[in-house]
Amino acid sequence: MINYIRNYRLGRSVRRYIYQLGPALANRYGASDQYTVLQIIKTAKTLKLKMDHAAYAVALYRHEQSENSLAFFKLDQTALDELRAIIAESLFNGWRHYTARDVLNLSRSRGWRGGAAPNWRANRLGMTSL
Fold it and tell me: What Cα–Cα distance (Å) separates residue 101 from each residue in 10, 60, 79, 106?
């Protein structure tokens, strides 16, 4: 039961890191292949995200070890690769060479998801292909 709760909280944190932190990083610093640890931490604190699983946020948006990843999270390259492997299994079908741009693609809006057609009158008269 405790593992279930721990996994639930981890999954919720990772979803927030993808859907809230990713677009905020892209808005603040532009789309990039990876972000610095300080950019990730500063943006997460600005969004008031919980930092319980911040090592996963670093693994999502960074693929190389840095001085700050060692200083703040004790993540050397092997630990970072292990976290990225766990993330890759669940999000990218085992593909471990994902970049921050791939994570940003997960948070992108998928377009029309139902509801009223953009121009319902034209659609009713047969003027569109909806």
Answer: 22, 10, 21, 9
